[in-house]
Specification:
It is built from 15 helices and 16 strands. The chain is an alpha/beta fold. Strands 4-12-11-10-7-5-6 form a 7-stranded mixed beta sheet, with helices on both faces. A 4-stranded mixed beta sheet has the order 1-2-3-15. Strands 13-14-16 form a 3-stranded antiparallel beta sheet. Strand 13 and strand 14 form a beta hairpin. The radius of gyration is 22 Å and the shape is globular. The mean pLDDT is about 95. The structure holds pyridoxal-5'-phosphate.
Length: about 450
């Protein structure tokens, strides 16, 4: 096996995601043979720093020995068992641990295998809660401008990305959007908190008029990742929580990207001192090893389904719901957080990266350099429609995997990078900007 032969076979047999396949006539696929810590390695031994954690999933490096040991152990005991009518140790232990991490505000965990399915579940549960409560008219959902919640039909209906949504518009019952609290919208003399407060005023106006038909408001707390790493002040979440309480609307925190320490706290909503009614997790929850997602909710929501009537129950299911291997990977991931004091260590890591990135942040080609926890982003001062692709290629040539969203360059590295990797990340970004702007 070598790079070229794998590449040819892939283009013959595999339909790759999020891709117009014709671009691969000129942009080569990157064959990867192995992963090691924050590095991806091809068949010729070329190494790439995985500075976006393989689509934001990898927390503690590839082939992590602690997660792998847990998986080997689990594989010898129980690979899978259906979760309807059966239970097993990993799913129970994981549910208990996750609930404890919310301070038991969210006492019940429902499982699926990917983020979009978690969003579907939260939407269905919210609607069904209101239906069981005698308010079936609450059957619409509200999201933020520029929201991204996944691409199955229900999730797409609350995703505000024209490129992903427009082709399927006839299939969707699209929800409304309210203005994003994006801190970049702060006017002269304003702070990001002012921008958050202004967006909260718009949310209040919307809910005052429409609350009777709104089941839930879904948000990506602190960072709207997929649509350009738009960051907002936690004040928005405090106001949204109060408004949702006032108007009897569920608050769904989609922490699929920002959960698991990515925002600087284990859950992003912690920074606002609030608890959502539903919390969606996926991506980092298994440390990036196996597909797993979870929807956590309150005892009050759970109680509204608990009844002699089957139809009042939540009958949703996926074949691999609560897969023991994936749950073990998640338990091993949570154990690393505890044993290594990861949240604290990440604060030091982030400070180190910010220090090294000072010149980059001040670069005239760099606009709105911003940071939340273990996410960094800036907008390149260019209108080149091919910027993302050209920057990606320039960075790859320097052994650095970055994949801009339009002209937004972002870093979302695994939490195991050290000084040398920070040097490559920042220095490689500056060199890639030089190459693209020359
Ligand atoms: C990635 C993502 C999803 C969808 O998760 P998939 O596993 O890709 O289906 C949903 N919401 C947010 C905020 C995400 O970043």
């Amino acid at each position: 096996m070598n790079n070229d032969s794998l590449l040819r076979r892939s283009l013959d047999a595999v339909w790759h995601p999020c891709t117009q396949m014709k671009v691969h006539e000129t942009l080569p696929l990157v064959p990867i043979r192995s992963g090691e810590g924050p590095w991806l390695i091809d068949f010729e031994g070329r190494r790439y720093l995985d500075a976006i954690s393989s689509w934001w999933v990898n927390l503690f490096g590839h082939a992590n020995p602690r997660i792998n040991a847990a998986l080997r152990d689990q594989l010898e005991r129980l690979d899978h068992v259906m979760l309807a009518g059966f239970t097993h140790e990993p799913v129970v232990a994981l549910s208990e641990k996750l609930s404890a991490l919310t301070g038991h505000a969210l006492g019940h965990c429902f499982y699926a295998s990917d983020g979009a399915s978690a969003v579907e579940i939260a939407l269905k549960m919210s609607f069904h809660f209101w239906r069981n409560s005698g308010r079936p008219g609450k059957n619409r959902f509200l999201s933020l401008a520029g929201s991204y919640h996944g691409e199955t039909l229900g999730a797409l209906a609350v995703t505000d990305v024209a490129l992903f949504r427009d082709a399927y518009a006839p299939l969707l019952r699209a929800g409304d959007t309210v203005p994003s609290p994006d801190g970049r919208q702060a006017g002269p003399g304003q702070t990001p908190r002012d921008a958050a407060a202004a967006a909260a005023v718009a949310l209040e106006a919307y809910l005052a008029e429409h609350h009777a038909e709104i089941a839930a408001f879904i948000v990506e707390p602190l960072v709207q990742c997929a649509t350009g790493m738009a960051m907002h002040d936690p004040e928005y979440l405090r106001r949204a929580r109060a408004l949702c309480d006032h108007y009897d609307v569920h608050l769904i925190a989609d922490e699929i990207a920002v959960g698991c320490g990515r925002s600087g706290t284990f859950f992003a909503h912690e920074q606002a001192g609030i608890a959502p009614d539903f919390l969606c997790l996926s991506k980092g929850i298994s440390g990036g090893t196996l597909p797993l997602s979870v929807v956590m909710t309150t005892d009050a929501v759970y109680a509204a389904f608990y009844d002699d009537s089957t139809a009042r129950g939540f009958l949703h299911s996926h074949s691999y719901t609560g897969n023991p291997l994936a749950c073990r990977a998640a338990l091993a991931t949570l154990a690393i957080f505890e044993e290594d004091g990861v949240i604290e260590a990440n604060r030091r890591l982030a400070a180190q990266l910010n220090e090294r990135a000072k010149a980059l942040a001040a670069d005239p080609r760099v606009r709105d350099f911003r940071n939340t926890g273990m996410i960094w982003a800036f907008d390149a001062a260019t209108d080149d429609p091919l910027f993302a692709r050209r920057f990606h290629q320039a960075a790859m040539e320097r052994g650095l995997l970055l994949r801009p969203l339009g002209n937004t360059v972002y870093f979302m590295p695994p939490y195991v990078i050290g000084g040398a990797e920070i040097e490559l990340l920042v220095g490689g970004t500056q060199a890639a900007l030089d190459a693209v702007f020359q």
